[in-house]
Amino acid sequence: MQAIQIIQAEHSKLWRLATTINTVADEIDSGGALTPEFFEAVFNYIETFVDRSHHPREDDFLFRLLRQRTDQANPLLDQLQSEHRSGPDTLRSLRQSLGQARQGELGQFTVALRAYTQGLKQHIRTEERELIPLAKEALTADDWHEINRAFLDNQDPLFGEHVKEEFRALYHRIATLAPESVGLGGLSSGELKPGTAPRVDFLLKVTGLQSSYGRIKALKGIDFEVRRGETVALVGANGAGKTTFLRALSGVQPTDGGSIHFDGRDISKLRSDLRMRGGICQCPEGRQVFGPLSIDDNLRLGAYTQPKSQVAGDLEKIFSMFPILKEKRRLPAGTLSGGQQQMLAIGRALMGRPKLLLLDEPSMGLAPLLVEEVFNVVKTLKSEGMTIILAEQNAFAALAIADRGYVMETGTITLSGTGQELISNEQVRAAYLGM
Ligand SMILES: Nc1ncnc2c1ncn2[C@@H]1O[C@H](COP(=O)(O)OP(=O)(O)O)[C@@H](O)[C@H]1O
Ligand SMILES: [Mg+2]
């Protein structure tokens, strides 16, 4: 039921957005400044995404077929569809309210925002708790086939691949314009470039990898493969061994067994700086930017194994992806917000021109809006053909964008499969997704 997974992923995205809107409303109520551009971006996103893509697909396929199968669903569907239909009106009145807020009437605006997010969350809850279980029960395999085909149709002019690109850019704009506390806190909106199709062959092959801290075995024989152009998620609870594994790949963590083949050669005994020169670049857990150094210098550090001649051009590429870093390039990295530091840490890793990018919990400790934005950045890199290992405790979001995934428990891989297989796996849902 891939359509259900898509709907659920979209729900969690909207839920995060609702949470963000509430946080910003609270800030305005306690004297924070109004940022009209941010709200315009939010309304544009919702209008484009919800009213043009999320709701029409539900209405035209899921709801229509469900009505055909059972009468029982009608009252529920009537309610949900009337909420869908009133969406554009609600947005129009929110935009009016924003206009008044610009004139100084802030109180009414935040009340309207809260009413809106409350309605949105209630709508999502009803779909998750009532509609989806009902659909799973009542719809036939043929129905699902039709629904899935519609949801997965990348050529569809309403919600195909190029429209997704548009949504991503709109979302990126929200994260960039959001107040410092919840967003990237910049004032220019960046470009996220659409990409090219990846090639397919093995870039990394790990066999029986072991590593220990004293007597504690942290990796107990890991087998792991990554094809060129793939995004592979490594999910598992805190303490599972994800960081140890990534550090073993980049060569800063000693291993005591097994082998690592990368880009056609055995690098098991290679020094870490030579692995980096060879194209394994790590964006470490907890970002680890150098606070007193400028943003510029932090990025340059990422290029220390690279020829000087390419640094200026690469810097500009990073800046076009994260314009906020360009605006602040001369400031100490310590002055950046958490989300900005994460972008800096990713940018620094990209300065090493990775063939394989290792991302260690990039969403950790970030506000919900930025969690989404970090995953959008990963999607963009993926669409440009980058090969990525994404270690995350945030299993749902990581698996949702990954081609394949591995589940790690106390130093062992317990499950592997495509991202979608793992999301649907009962064991994974119970253990990591809290479902
Ligand atoms: N520096 C260290 N010294 C001793 N034990 C460590 C060290 N770092 C991690 N460990 C242990 O190794 C195991 C795996 O940790 P880690 O790789 O950080 O997991 P994850 O990244 O999945 O949270 C844990 O049991 C952890 O306590
Ligand atoms: Mg870790």
Folded structure, characterized:
- This protein is α/β, with parallel strands linked by helices and 435 residues long.
- The protein has 2 domains: 176 residues, Four Helix Bundle (Hemerythrin (Met), subunit A); 231 residues, Rossmann fold (3-Layer(aba) Sandwich), CATH 3.40.50.300.
- It contains 16 helices and 10 strands.
- The strands form 2 sheets. A 6-stranded mixed β-sheet has the order 6-7-8-3-9-10, sandwiched between helices. The chain has a 4-stranded antiparallel β-sheet with strand order 2-1-4-5, covered by helices on one side.
- Strand 9 and strand 10 form a beta hairpin.
- The two termini are 16 Å apart.
- The relative contact order is 0.12.
- About 2% of the residues have low confidence.
- It binds adenosine-5'-diphosphate and magnesium ion.
- The site of adenosine-5'-diphosphate (ADP) has 11 residues, from strand 2 and helix 7.
- The site of magnesium ion (MG) has 5 residues, from helix 7.
Blueprint (SSEs and pairs):
Elements: H1 2-29, H2 36-69, H3 74-102, H4 106-138, H5 141-151, H6 161-177, E1 202-213, E2 216-227, E3 231-235, H7 242-250, E4 257-262, E5 265-266, H8 272-278, E6 280-283, H9 295-301, H10 311-321, H11 323-327, H12 338-350, E7 356-360, H13 368-383, E8 387-392, H14 395-401, E9 404-409, E10 412-418, H15 419-424, H16 426-432
Helix pairs in contact: 1-4, 1-5, 2-3, 2-5, 2-6, 3-4, 6-13, 9-12
The structure holds adenosine-5'-diphosphate (ADP) and magnesium ion.
